[in-house]
Amino acid sequence: MKDLIDSSNVPSHLAVIMDGNGRWAKQVGAKRIFGHQNATRAVRETVEGAAELGVSYLTLFAFSTENWSRPKHEVSALMELLIKTLKSDTLELVDNNVVLKTIGDIRSLPKSCLKELDKAMESTKNNDGLVLNLALSYSGKWDLVNAVKQVVAEQVSAPSEITEELLAKHLNTYGIPDPELLIRTSGEMRISNFMLWQMAYTELYFTKTLWPDFRKEHLFEAILEYQRRERRFGKISEQI
Questions:
Q1: Which pLDDT belongs to residue 240?
Q2: Exactly one of 6, 9, 19, 118 is catalytic; which is it?
Q3: Rounded Cα gap, residues 135 and 65, in angstroms
Q4: Cα–Cα distances in Å, from 1 out to 15, 42, 93, 98, 235?
Q5: Annotated catalytic, 19?
Q6: Residues of the chain scoring pLDDT < 70
Q7: pLDDT score at 159
Q8: Which of 138, 129, 121 is nearest to 58 (CA)?
Q9: How far apart are CA 218 and CA 210, in angstroms?
Q10: 149 lies in a domain?
Q11: How many C-alpha atoms does 134 have within 13 Å on its Cβ side?
């Protein structure tokens, strides 16, 4: 399937909502955290597949601001899993020339998580390959409100000074192209408060595959579907 992909028409920025861990665990008669633990292979294969295709930016929606309202034991287990994964996978990221970055209100994360995140980002900062963005304690509404607060703090003198460019400059993703393709697993068909501003013209791809079962071939299938679409940005076909 990879051979069918047009390498000149690969999204420069791919975003993924990794959904279905809990349902996957339920299907095998296990607790929800078991699903999260078994999702690490899906992450690795997605990162590897994106790098192989020449994707420049990959943003994974790992933990939303709304996820803080989940049962405390699940949140704690997720934070522990994040620490464990960072410790075990950072060397592989370095070896594969991946740059690790984050978006979101990461200062709300436990200090132990921040410590490992800082170490991992420091270890990969000199790489120049795929940029892997982990969206942690992130939501699109939070991003927009945070951007507006920063704009107001600049004390603009007139409403006319507030432009799309000014607001975008204060978003967490400033300097990163808007995602051309969003993949959401598990069959749910919504964007769940993820990069609301940035996905104004993003192509949406939904698959019923649960995230722990997601593999490179599923990624390649999504890219092929993306390449079958005509992206018009408000124009008509004849103008493209």
A1: 60
A2: 19
A3: 10
A4: 21, 18, 25, 24, 31
A5: yes
A6: 233, 235-240
A7: 83
A8: 129
A9: 11
A10: no
A11: 20
* 86-144 pLDDT tens trace: 999 999 999 999 999 999 999 999 999 999 999 999 999 999 999 999 999 999 999 99
The residue written with tokens 């699940």 in the block is: 74
Longest dimension (CA), the chain: 59
Sign of torsion over alpha carbons 171, 58, 53, 219: negative
Bridge partner list, 101: 133
**Both structure tokens of 111:** 């200090």
Q: How many CB atoms lie within 10 A of CB 184?
A: 24
Which amino acid makes up residue 76? S
Which residue range forms the structural domain that includes residue 50? 2-138+180-229
In a domain, residue 186? The reply is yes
Angle at 74 between CA 32 and CA 123, to 5 degrees: 100
Q: Please identify which of the residues 6, 9, 67, 143 carries the catalytic annotation.
A: 67
Q: Name the pTM for this structure.
A: 0.95
Count of the separate structural domains present in the chain: 1
16 three-class SS? strand
Across the strands, what pairs with 131?
57, 99
Tell me the two tokens of residue 101. 């970055």
What would the DSSP string read from start to end of 39-68? THHHHHHHHHHHHHHT-SEEEEEEEEGGGG
Q: Look up the CATH number of the domain holding residue 10.
A: 3.40.1180.10
